[in-house]
Amino acid sequence: MIARRTLIGASIAAVAAPFLLTSLERTASASTPAVLDVELANNSSSDTVYAYVLGLDLNQGNQWAFLEADGSTLYHPPSPAAPGAALGADCAITLPARGAASRRISLPYLASGRIYFSIGSKLTFLINPGPGIAMPSVANPSDPNIATSYSFCEFTYDTTQLYANISYVDFASVPISFNLQTSGQGTQTVQGLAAGGLETVAAALRTQAASDGGDWAKLIVPNSSGGTLRVLSPNTAIASNPALFSGYLDSYINQVWTKYQSTDLVIDTQASWGSTTGRVSGGVLSFPGVGSFAKPSTAAVFNCSAAPFTTGNDEMGNLSARLAAAFNRTTILDNPNQPDGENPALFYQQPHSNHYARILHQTATDHLGYAFPYDDVHPAGVDFEGRVQSSVPTVWTITAGGSSGGSTTPPSSPPPTQGGGTSAFATIQAEAYTSQSGTQTETTGDAGGGQDVGWIANGDWLGYAGVDFGSGGATQFRARVASGAAAGVSGLVQVCLDSPTAAPVGSFAVGSTGGWQTWQTVPATISRVTGTHTVYLTFASGQPADFVNINWFTFAAS
After folding, report:
1. Distance between CA atoms of 237 and 249, rounded to whole angstroms?
2. How far apart are CA 215 and CA 161, in angstroms?
3. Residue 14: is its pLDDT beyond 90?
4. CA distances from residue 297 to 99, 179, 234, 303, 384 in whole angstroms, order as listed
5. Whether the Cβ atoms of residue 482 and residue 553 lie closer than 8 Å to each other
6. Secondary element (H or E) of residue 362
7. What CA–CA distance (Å, rounded) separates 144 from 122?
8. What is the predicted pLDDT for the residue at 28?
9. What residues does the CBM6 domain cover (predicted)?
10. How far is CA 235 from each of CA 97, 149, 218, 306, 391, rounded to the nearest angstrom?
11. How far apart are CA 479 and CA 550, in angstroms?
């Protein structure tokens, strides 16, 4: 896991950067292609869209480089004599008109990279001595790009893998979605915000502000026509106006500090240090032999790197990341064992929480995407941050303007694999079972329509023949579930192979989601599965009552 930091709106020199993977984080494999095919597609409402691709050139000593307008030539800006120099080359890659065929570019090895998309006009990048790149900044009112609609995604592409994610850490604006084709590992997708999703986010923030009196509506930046240009994260907004959200989380933070005066807080560093136990004493949360944390402020929680949090790649840095995630998700008061990541339905449930992150996850078509700096804190094999990652990438398609249709389900007809089975990496509709026991289908109220499978209780199962995991295999499982079960009624959704009585390769727990048609997407880690199998979803509960409905499920590679 990468303890990631995002650098925004500043002159960035070629130093150790957040997306430059260390040798310990790389997997041994054959080298990836020296140049990766990338397709840039326009699904926006405009025929005028530009892309900018930049990063640290791994073949030239980690110098900053841009792809030029031809989409293949690298340009290394020289160090100017004074700050604010022009870029010096045309690096605006013009996308096709909306709905037209995508444009293919060639991506070389670049680390700590970004791909920007701007709508209607080009972006301005300035060069400072070093050289350093002055990135577009949404926090600087005098920035030359302040009135332009733009977004970016982040990536590193090196000899070992492609790793990329959609980021809302600083702001949300132009929707971006991913489709990554790989050799032998299926297709990975991150759907991001749907077209029109930004206005949905803005409306939800206004509703939240009316509900709790917080400054959520002040995160919305309008455009010249009265719509939404972008939505700032709390951290970005506070950087410009420190008075925002003053004391908003203080009551929750105080309750946490009180609880852990008499209760152990156990944090799994998910690294070689293992789990560490701390308690609050004298107003300080101490982890003996490691370090301590003063009580954080609301601004520090949203920022994730202001004192008392640290950002080093050491044990304190790992503790900081997990503490910051637990505070943003407001799970630390209820769960003394962190990170809490098995059931994201439990995140953001306190009246005062990081509702920006909650709303973005709820609005994103597949509920994925970085919404605060440590949104990559989770159990191994689970993905909240909206990443694609592969050591064998073949074609990476990035679409500006959002996934079409706004459905919370990917396409309903999974494509067959070369072997004639159903791809494990496509979306498998629950009602497409080839065998079952004890269940019934019904019309679903979930977005996308169709049917779901309900009346599921202990001992029931669903079978799906010919599911092909390929040679690379899968270590992740994700399912769309709903539950109107009574208080105290819950159960497990389990994945078994080739027999409904086989030992599960993975599972997740589910209780009431608030209604039989109140849908949530829940991830789980599974043991690596390769080859072709009959997949059985089996259901176990300590109570006889129905406890879950299921609409669809899918698998993913780690």
Report:
1. 16
2. 40
3. no
4. 46, 39, 13, 10, 25
5. no
6. helix 355-363
7. 10
8. 34
9. 426-556
10. 35, 20, 12, 10, 33
11. 7
Six-digit token string for 126: 């300035």
Query: Taking Cα atoms as reference points, which of 324, 340, 327 lies closest to residue 373?
Result: 324
Query: Residues near 434 by Cβ (< 8 Å), separated by ≥ 6?
Result: 463, 464, 465, 534
Nearest to 215 by CA among 198, 200, 232: 232
Q: Helices marked H in 283-354 — which ranges? A: 298-303, 315-328
Nearest to 118 by CA among 221, 49, 42, 70: 49
Q: What 8-state DSSP symbol labels residue 414?
A: P
Element (H, E) at 120: none
Residue 485 DSSP symbol: P
- At residue 206, the pLDDT reads 95
Mean residue pLDDT of the chain comes to 88
* Helix (H) or strand (E) segment spanning residue 36: strand 36-42
Determine the distance from the C-alpha atom of residue 317 to the mean position of all C-alpha atoms in its chain, rounded to a whole number: 20
pTM above 0.85, yes or no: no
Which is higher by pLDDT, 412 or 145? 145
Taken in order of first residue, the domains within the chain and their CATH numbers are: 11-194+369-400 (2.60.110.10), 250-351 (3.30.920.50), 422-556 (2.60.120.260)
Give the chain's length.
Answer: 558
Let me know: does 263 contact 335? Beta carbons within 8 Å: no
Amino acid letter for position 260: Y
Question: Strand 220-222 to strand 228-232: parallel, antiparallel, or no bridges (unpaired)?
Answer: antiparallel
Q: Residue 558's pLDDT is what?
A: 59
- Least confident segment among 180-194, 226-240, 353-367, 406-420: 406-420
Beta strands in 384-503 (DSSP E): 387-390, 393-400, 422-423, 428-429, 435-437, 440-443, 451-456, 461-468, 474-483, 491-497
Q: Is the pLDDT of residue 514 over 70?
A: yes
The two tokens of residue 554 are: 């899918």
- Reference 197, options 46, 445, 408, 375; nearest CA is 408
**Percent of the chain predicted with pLDDT > 90:** 71
- What is the pLDDT, as a whole number, of residue 365? 85
DSSP element (H, E) containing 549: strand 548-556
CA 312 from chain center: how many Å?
22
By C-alpha distance, which of 517, 519, 522, 484 is closest to 506? 522
pLDDT beyond 80 at 411: no
Residue tagged 């503490």 (tokens): 323
CA distance 367 to 384: 8
Q: How large is the average pLDDT for residues 219-236?
A: 95
Strand order in the sheet with 337-338: 291-294, 284-287, 275-281, 265-268, 337-338
Asked if pLDDT for residue 316 goes beyond 50, the answer is yes
